[in-house]
Amino acid sequence: LQPHHTSSYRCKGYVSLVVSHWSKSEQVTVTVHRVPPLGVSLSVQLQGGQVEFGDSLVLNCAVAMGTGPLSFSWHQEGSGTLLGTGPHLELHHVGDNDSGQYRCWVSNGESVAKSGPLNVTVL
Predict the structure, then answer these.
(1) Which of 8, 81, 89, 99 registers the highest number of CB atoms within 10 A of its CB?
(2) Rounded to two decimals, what is the model's pTM?
(3) d(Cα 24, Cα 13) in Å, to the nearest integer?
């Protein structure tokens, strides 16, 4: 089911007893809601388990549950800049300004869930 399936439904059938005729059920309204995103988690792909000045870094955002379409946004604490909009954030040639806490926000258009912080330290 998808949200666009929200509607009123009834069934109709041909009854053939003594007198044959069409019969309809009572109308039923079905409302389909999206499942809010839950269980947003972050992971990091590091070469050798640490990131050094000038290296590249990939952060991954995963969602345990939720119906979409889902949209992603990446944020670094203390920065008002939107860093990315996909499930992966690639940081190329990291520098001192890239150290800090990162979060991923996931939205299904009705609600938003935020990951816990992921600490990144550039050596």
Answers:
(1) 89
(2) 0.73
(3) 7
